[in-house]
Write a structure and sequence with these properties.
This protein is an all-alpha fold. The chain has one domain (about 5-84). It has four helices and no strands.
């Protein structure tokens, strides 16, 4: 794991990915739900933070992350726990 990767940076990237993805669904997909959302989020996060993990591994973490509380916070913790 990249020693520079912090929970705060990962949370921020996940939140930004969510905002960008919402715009993508509304504009590019005309409001349709994106079934490939994890790939979009993964590419966005890796583009912002660098290749701290392979894209396929990150997509798997995103798909497996628990959906409780603040999603970006719990998902960042889930990813970092799995990278340790």
């Amino acid at each position: 794991m990249d020693a520079k990767l912090s929970r705060k940076a990962l949370e921020g990237a996940l939140k930004a990915a969510g905002s960008a993805h919402h715009d993508y669904e509304q504009n590019a997909l005309s409001g349709a739900k994106d079934e490939q959302w994890a790939g979009f989020y993964g590419a966005y996060v890796l583009g912002r933070l660098g290749d701290f993990v392979t894209p396929s591994v990150l997509v798997g973490f995103l798909e497996d992350a628990p959906e409780d509380g603040d999603w970006a916070v719990s998902t960042a913790e889930f990813i970092l726990d799995n990278l340790r």
